[in-house]
Each structure stands twice: as C-alpha cells, then as structure tokens.
Amino acid sequence: MQKTRAIIGLLAAFAVLGLLAACGGSEPTPTSTAPAPTPTDGPPTATPTALPPGVTAEPTPTSSGPSAADIFEAEWAELIVAAQAEGQLVLALGGSDSRTGRFAFEDFKRQFGIEMVTSSGSGSDNANRILAEYSRGVHTVDVVTVSGASLERLRSAEILTPVADWLIRPDVIDRSVGWYLNETIWSDRDRKYVMADSLAVGTIGSIWYNTDNVTQEDLDLIDNYTDLLRPEFKGRMAMRAMNNPGGKSVIARLWLTPGLGPEFLEAIHRDTDIDLVIPEGDKALAEGVANGKWDFGIFGGGRDFRALEALQLPVRELTLTKQVGALSTELSGGNAMLKSPPNPNAAKLFLNWWYSQEGQTADVESVSAYGPIGSVSLRSDVTQGTFPDHLWDVVQQIPGWRADGTLNERLVVFEDNDEWFEVRDATEKFFNDLYIELGYDAFVNF
C-alpha cells in the first residue's frame, strides 16, 4: 500500500502599510505683511509639518491598481453575463446523479437563470452517446459527471478539457482554507481533467438487506466480509457483476484490502450461489432486495437503496449501523468539461460554482434529501448533511492523521495513485475470465 503523504500548503498574507507624511523644510522667516494667497482650482493644500531633525520623510504611497479580489469579481460578473446569454447548460450524468442531484442543479438554475438540460440513463450509456457524437463532429454535451470506466473511456478518447482552462475561483484554486486537504486529488489518471469533490469514509463495501426476510440472528453473524461465505447466506445474495464498466472503486477496495483480495472475490462467486445484475444495475439490485427477490444486496451503490428506504420500503444498510471489517477512505467524484462544448461560458460558470462552498453545499443537501449519505464534500466549510455522526468525527481527524503520518495505521486508505488505476484495469480481465468459466455469458464484455 502506498504511504499517504500530506502536502501542507502554508500561505502567508502580507499587507503593505503606507505612512502618509509630508516633506518638511526650514521654518519661514516671518514678515510683516502676509502674501496674498494664490488662487487654485481645488481645495486648499495643507501646510506641511516640519519633521524633527534627522528624520527622513516616508514616500507617499501610489496606487498599485485593482486588487486580485476586484479583478476576480469583474471576471466573475462578466462570465455570468456571457453564460446567461447562452441560456442553457447540457449535462451528461451517471445513473445515480440523474436521480439524486436534481436539487443541486435547480439551485444553480435559480441563482444564475440558466436552464439545466440533464440526461438520464447510465454513465456507460452517456459515454457511448458522447463518443459516437464526437466521431461525427457533433458536440451536444457541455459537462459530464460520469466516473470509473466511463470517465476512462472519455479520457482515452482525448475529448476532455484540462481544468486549467476553466478554473478561476480563488477559493477553489487555493486550498489552504476551507478544504480538508491542501493538495488537489484527481479522479482521472492524467491528473488534469477531473478534480475529486467527495471524501468517503466507511466500510469497504455496503451490505443492504430486506428487513422482512433477514433476522437479527442473521445480522449478528456478519462481522467481516468473509462471513458472507457462511452457508447460512448461500443462495440469498445478489450483487453487480464486477467487470467493466460499473463499480470499479468498490472492487478495487475489496481487491486491495488485506484478508480479502482476489481469493475472497473468487469465493463469493463460486461458493455462494450469488445472483448477478448488470455492472451498473444499482436500481435493479435495490428493487430486487426491496421486493424480497434477494435477502441481501452487497457492494452496490447506496443512492438507489436510500431512495427506496426514503419511500419506507423494507431495505436497510447493515454497514451504516455496524462496522464490518476495517474502515476505509476514498476520494472520488467531480465533473469534467468536454472539448468544444456548445455552451462554454455556462459550463465554465457551473464547474467553478460546483467546487465552491455554495455548489458543494447544494450537492450535499440534494443527496441528503434521500437519506443517510456515505461521503462528504472535500470542502471543510460545507454542511455535514445526513452523513453519520460517528463517521463525521473520523473525517475531522483525517487532516491531522495525514500530517503526522499515521493515517494508514488507522484506516485502509484509497486515493488516486498508479497502483489504484492498475488494479482497476487488472480486475476487469480477472472477472471476464471468471465469468467465461462460470458460464455468466451475459456479463462477459470481451
């Protein structure tokens, strides 16, 4: 495991103090008759005060022009006007964002008066559409929120715009104030297209269950993920297929965690009579557990389950109330701008707003509307939302643990690094080979 290093950025602010002083001379020799004043166009000039002997007058300060804050405010106001002239923003979303992000998008629309045109469907479907359009020279999408393998496909096709081309907000560029981490964490392997916005702290992978079918005795048997291999759970579980394109992050965590790894992942497929849904089948997995088709849904995305839980359907998350195995961290999320977007100013405005305190607060509150959330913003000045209190306490300590080098001793840490991306690639081939052998032909993608 790569040792996590903290990069502490210290920013010292210096104020230039100017002392107004007048240039003095020798005292005038008094005369009997005062000279007549010379007319001027402006107000009278104050009589200079003589300086004590040996004291040199300070130079009168001169204006250094507009401040950096003034320059940004003018640029920001100009960007808003240009974005409003375009009138709309087109976003291609991952499956969960299309359901739980709409309140955040509405906040942006209300604040700036720009229509939000959002896609539906999975991240894979949207990536397919975008790639097909670009091959024909058609550009209909401004911003994408897809992740994992879908993001990798767009990156490999070289149709993303580097962050440096659109980032202007000082509170986003300078992370010494208002962020948990001073350095930028990237969601893409080139480290220039997508800045992570999400800090997840929790168990390695989620375990959801049907409250009508699962007893407390069942739950008491699960203290580690290897307990899912017990005969009591055979034929009662389902999960997403673990090859491309969905679920790469949880797969990599399971692969890299000591005591789990490929041996556990192979056993969960071979020895438990587990059912599979498509790799991005979070909705099908959640609905199957809610209607009793399966007693347990493991390692799936939580947003679809939480939406059903909010509707008072019989689904609960075991890993929200009980620590199963070690706690882990993961940094992920973020948005990317496509090359040649149809609404470049609206896209630039949205992306800068998204990483601001306002944008990140809107995102947390939007997702929190569906129940408990599994991650917080990387901004430390953003609301907790419905993130669990006991994990919120852990989040507050992460900067200190990173600084003193003890983070890896306390948590299983996953961040962007070469090993992380290499594992994500390796697991795709591993599971394709396994599915060919086991006869899961519907899930083999090459």
Layout: helices, strands, pairs:
Elements: H1 68-86, E1 88-92, H2 95-100, H3 102-112, E2 115-118, H4 123-135, E3 143-144, H5 148-156, E4 160-161, H6 170-173, E5 198-203, E6 207-210, H7 216-220, E7 237-240, H8 248-256, H9 261-270, E8 275-277, H10 282-290, E9 296-298, H11 302-310, E10 315-317, H12 318-321, E11 327-332, E12 336-338, H13 344-354, H14 357-368, E13 375-377, H15 389-404, H16 407-410, E14 412-414, H17 418-438
Parallel strand pairs: 1-2, 1-3, 7-8, 7-9, 11-14
Antiparallel strand pairs: 3-12, 4-12, 5-11, 5-13, 6-9, 6-10
Task: Summarize the structure in short.
The chain is of the alpha/beta class.
Question: Can you describe this structure?
Answer:
Helix 8 crosses helix 9 and helix 8 crosses helix 17. Helix content is 39%, strand content 11%. It starts with 67 loop residues before the first helix and ends in an 8-residue tail after the last helix. The protein is built from 17 helices and 14 strands. It has 2 domains: 68-197 and 333-392, Periplasmic binding protein-like II (D-Maltodextrin-Binding Protein, domain 2, 3-Layer(aba) Sandwich), CATH 3.40.190; 205-325 and 428-441, D-Maltodextrin-Binding Protein, domain 2 (3-Layer(aba) Sandwich). It has a 5-stranded mixed β-sheet with strand order 2-1-3-12-4. Strands 8-7-9-6-10 form a 5-stranded mixed β-sheet. Strands 13-5-11-14 form a 4-stranded mixed β-sheet. Residues 1-57 have low confidence and may be disordered. It is α/β, with parallel strands linked by helices and 446 residues long. The longest helix has 21 residues, at 418-438.
